[in-house]
Specification:
Helix content of chain A is 39%, strand content 20%. Chain A is α/β, with parallel strands linked by helices. In chain A, α1 packs parallel to α2 and α9 crosses α12. The N terminus of chain A is likely disordered. Chain B is 36% helix and 16% strand. Chain B has a single domain, classed as Thiamin diphosphate (ThDP)-binding fold, Pyr/PP domains (Rossmann fold, 3-Layer(aba) Sandwich). The mean pLDDT of chain B is 93. Chain B has 208 residues and is of the alpha/beta class. In chain B, α4 packs across α5. In chain B, the strands form two sheets. In chain B, strands 2-1-3-4-8-7 form a six-stranded parallel beta sheet, with helices on both faces. In chain B, strands 5-6 form a two-stranded antiparallel ribbon. In chain B, α2 links the parallel β1 and β2. Classes of the chains: A alpha/beta (368), B alpha/beta (208). Chains A and B meet through α3, α4 and β10 of A and β1, β2, α3 and α5 of B. β10 of chain A pairs parallel with β2 of chain B, so a sheet runs across the interface.
Chain lengths: 368, 208
């Protein structure tokens, strides 16, 4: 199926007798995950380093007789997602950091109107136009609001090509289950890197009936989707209802990977590409007899605070590794809640933290 | 006595929040009547703007959604492209359509999206207290043009219909008024014509 389209973007790799993995860029893997999830429409706008997504979708979606539009702006693309998802369809937009700033308007409206759009951010360096290198500097924007008002976005952080596929596949179910926008917070490195990916999901074709979508008022009362709630107390009640939903998401949707963490005296918290560099450093540290481990949040919101807290025991030292000047480290500190020291290692502006630097930090903390 | 006129089914029995003299109520009624006459109420989805007419969803008796300021054409594009069997229209003011949403308006029209736009031009921002709009006339005094609109300072009013008529994707534009009874009748006919054409093609209507 895949080999017929956009052939320059991937090659097949025969791994076992039957299982065929494809060697693809992370950005292509995420497209296929979304398509397998039953994507009805993709709306995009060019920006590096996510250009593979609109390019791939422009062919795949049209071949499948689904909707592809290159919008006039990221603003318009995100609002097209809002429109399509308001009718119960599955729609996605993707961009990179400066474009994601423009999408915040629609994201806030989707949160308020409870419209389950899916937004992909293949992060690059910032602020401003920044550069086109991979980065993790949009953590605050993704998990602390980004747009205006009291709301939460469910945020996944894929660390490899397979997770780009798997998490994109799951994002639509989770978004519709909670009627909440979902973001895939990727980075330019995972987006651009070619890795073998097992396209193992079944194509979704059937979806539950939903009692809120706009599909014409045939045989029922008209429905209205809105976030403007002017009557006294109505907006506050809506905010409290959203809070209840967010608490349910926090109870049920936290995902994290634990790596060699049970006996660890130095625990790294890292997500996405920086978690993979950290794993290499942990292997090297273990060879030197240092008990190091990793907690990798797969969901950045809801954040795995309870998991981190459960490892915050006397004698343990934490640090986060990020391609930023220190954003997630604030949530790690809140989770650890003063029980252990929490340090930070990171680089900004598209700079890459090396496994050697991570290992040095592990050794430095182990000696303390 | 025989009842020969009543509220269209596409309009709810709900008190309008519009100011005395405002044309929104009249246009709501005309739109609702056209939808009734064409029997499309149960497959219509409307997109309300930011501005006074955001409350359109309180008055129209069919599915409606809100959109961020200026974005109704993008929201309507998302709805219509994924639901080609539905009748989709936006209802927008001059600030929404011709200032903050200019890009969405032009590109939606240029793509030839199969939607209808009801453009209400009252030459000022009504909901926020009467500031200058892109369509404010030269010399017109508003909250933010206390000395009258001066083209040297504020530029010229945008002729929206002429602007959009220049695009190949636009199917039909008619500029009408609801200033008196004959014009209301004319506007009603225009709106009905729009929805009729729109069952197949893309159209834009401007109301003054």
């Amino acid at each position: 199926m895949l080999s017929n389209v956009s052939g320059h973007l991937h090659r097949s790799v025969q791994v076992e007798n039957k299982m065929v993995k494809k060697l693809v860029k992370g950005n292509v893997a995420l497209c296929e995950g979304a398509i397998a999830a039953g994507l009805d429409a993709y709306f995009g706008y060019p920006i590096t380093p996510q250009n593979e997504v609109p390019a791939y979708m422009s062919k795949r979606m049209v071949e499948m007789k689904k909707v592809f539009i290159q919008a006039e702006s990221e603003l318009a693309a995100a609002n097209m997602v809002l429109g399509a998802c308001a009718t119960g369809k599955r729609a996605m937009t993707s961009s990179s950091s400066p474009g994601i700033s423009l999408k915040q308007e629609a994201i806030s409206y989707m949160a308020g109107m409870e419209v389950p759009g899916v937004i992909v951010n293949v992060q690059r360096g910032g602020p401003g136009l920044g550069n086109i290198a991979g980065s993790q500097a949009d953590y605050f924007q993704a998990v602390k609001g980004g747009g205006h008002g009291d709301y939460r976005l469910i945020v996944y952080a894929p660390a490899n090509g397979q997770e780009m596929y798997d998490l994109a596949y799951n994002a639509f179910d989770v978004a519709q289950k909670y009627r909440n926008p979902v973001m895939l917070l990727c980075d330019g490195i995972v987006g651009q890197m070619m890795e073998p990916v097992d396209f193992n999901k079944e194509q979704k074709t059937k979806f539950e009936d939903r009692d809120w979508i706009l599909d014409g008022c045939k045989g029922r009362e008209p429905r209205s989707l809105k976030s403007l709630l002017m009557q006294d107390g109505v907006l506050e009640q809506h905010n409290l209802d959203l809070l209840k939903k967010y608490q349910m998401i926090q109870d049920k949707e936290v995902k994290a990977e634990l790596y060699q963490v049970e006996d660890a005296e130095v625990i790294i918290v890292a997500y996405g590409i920086s978690s993979r560099i950290s794993k290499n450093a942990i292997k090297q540290a273990r060879e030197k007899g240092i008990k190091a481990g990793l907690i990798r949040p797969v969901t950045l919101w809801p954040f795995p605070s309870d998991i981190i807290a459960s490892y915050a025991k006397p004698g343990v030292k934490f640090f986060s590794v990020e391609f930023s000047l220190g954003q997630m480290v604030e949530d790690v500190k809140l989770a650890v809640n003063g029980k252990c020291p929490v340090d930070f290692l990171g680089r900004a502006g598209g700079g890459i933290v090396s496994d050697k630097q991570v290992l040095d930090k592990i050794e430095e903390l182990a000696k303390k | 006595m025989e009842k020969i006129l009543s509220r269209p089914k596409a309009l709810k029995d709900f008190p309008l929040s519009y100011c005395p003299g405002c044309g929104h109520g009249i246009v709501h009624r005309l739109v609702a009547q056209a939808i009734d006459d064409l029997g499309i109420r149960e497959r219509t989805i409307a997109v309300a703007p930011v501005g006074c007419a955001v409350f359109a969803y309180n008055y129209f008796n069919f599915d409606t959604t809100e959109a961020p300021h200026g974005r109704p054409p993008a929201v309507a594009t998302g709805i219509k492209r994924t639901n080609p069997d539905k009748i989709v229209f936006t209802y927008q003011g001059d600030g929404d359509l011709a200032a903050i949403g200019t890009a969405e308006t032009i590109h939606c029209a240029n793509r030839g999206e199969n939607i209808t736009v009801i453009f209400i031009n009252n030459a000022n921002y009504g909901m926020t207290g009467g500031q200058m709009a892109p369509t404010t006339l030269l010399g017109q005094v508003t909250e933010t043009t206390p000395f009258g609109r001066d083209p040297q300072r504020e530029g010229y009013p945008i002729n929206v219909c002429e602007l959009l008529a220049g695009l190949k994707g636009t199917k039909y534009i008619e500029r009408v008024s609801v200033c008196d009874a004959p014009h209301v009748i004319q506007a009603g006919k225009a709106i009905k014509k729009l929805f009729k054409i729109k069952l197949k093609e893309k159209v834009i209507l401007s109301l003054k």
